[in-house]
Amino acid sequence: MAGDTKSRVWCYIVLLTLSFELANAQNSFTVPDVTIEILQPKGFRVSIPDASGISLFVFQGHVNRKIDRNAVGSLKGEVLRPTNGRWVYEDTNTQLQVGDVINYYVFVSKNRMGYVKDNLSYTVTTLGNRSGGSTTEKPVNCAPTITSVRGGTACAGQVIFEDDFSALKDAWQIEQYLPVSSHPEYPFVSYQRLLTDPVVSVSNGYLRITPKIQQQMPGFNNESIYLGNLDLFSGCTSRAEECYRQASGPDILPPVVSGRVTTTGFAFKYGTVHIKAKLPLGDWLYPEILLEPFLKKYGSSNYASGVIKIAAARGNRDLRVGSDEYGNKVLYGGPIMDVQCRMQLLSRKLRDNGLWGDEFHEYSLTWTPQYMSLSVDGEEWARVDATGGLASRFPQNCAHLPRMLLEKGTKIAPFDDYFYITLGVAAGGITEFPDNSFSTGGRPKPWRNSGRKAMLSYWEDLAAWQWTWTEPELLIDYIKVIAL
User: Fold this and answer.
1) Which domain holds residue 122?
2) Which residue numbers delimit the GH16 domain (predicted)?
């Protein structure tokens, strides 16, 4: 029976190959949108609506690996007749976890012609409630919510995304690119996806993002920083200008290699995010625990479409401007929507004893159309109220705020669209560390944020800050997003 099934599948693939070009040329039929539903305790259901002339529906897929449209999948099924107006294939044996990605294609025979819809994927964001992917059907007893999941559904109180980092799943993309000078923070790092000695890894149930010194990586030395090049085109996740750099004069290569991950198949609007993390310790380091705009509908330059810092604390154990504390004792976060006036809505919380990076804490954000609330270990420490509109709070010299925020946006704009999650570690940069500040032992900050040689000055001070990187990792224990 298994052999017969495999033979039939290959026959369908041959049919697909022979008829696809003709069917595509005639352009007489488009395979309908595919609906995927996650079942409990395991399995999933795939379906398309019926249409006159359909005589066969075939599903081919893999979990967490790509599939070619001419290949047989580890998940496969054939359907010879519709049920209640839909062509339905049901798998009741595959055990799926939140974060798993089903990569698949479907084949439909209609009026003796073959049609394919390929390069499809579905990210499992919840289990057993038919959410995520392309499904529009809500589970039974689904309470209304203001939360939206891009491409899916949500119910009040539902966990719409969750990861305990038992493995690094395909729900995350490891970024690879070089921030350029137009980046609003312009950190002195390159984000790389390294196969050996990686800066992004999962072990012992933690996501680990560990910054390293570029000159200590294979093939590099101190001279390379000044004269070499960094080619990240293979696997680059950004624009071409951010995939390659040639050092020249004061424009050295980024001296730090670090990591950044983003959710690839998950974006949402409004909800509560919980992230248990241990923040990095080391001079001139800072964590990136962010929500970033998916579509950038208010503009792609600077912070036009907004960024939310869920939690951040500079890695310096002691950092002061006069008597004001800016080091790891200070937790800060909130919405950012302008470079020039980036501190306008950011909040600060000073820790009385110890440092934020000494141990794990649960950092939380509740994001609604009316306000944003920041909490740590269950205690709210900041709230940004959108009464009157966030944009109206900014002075006229915050020139980067687009007029559409005031004219077309909601009160919470630009934070009224889908955002995705970003986790990473950065170093240096032109915004996070105030000028005229002094670190441990009274050592002055070695660069000025507006200086032409900022990155070079930072690098030349290596001996003064490298020894402080005793715990430079960002450790993430878990992340959970809950619908309101």
Assistant:
1) 2-127
2) 136-484
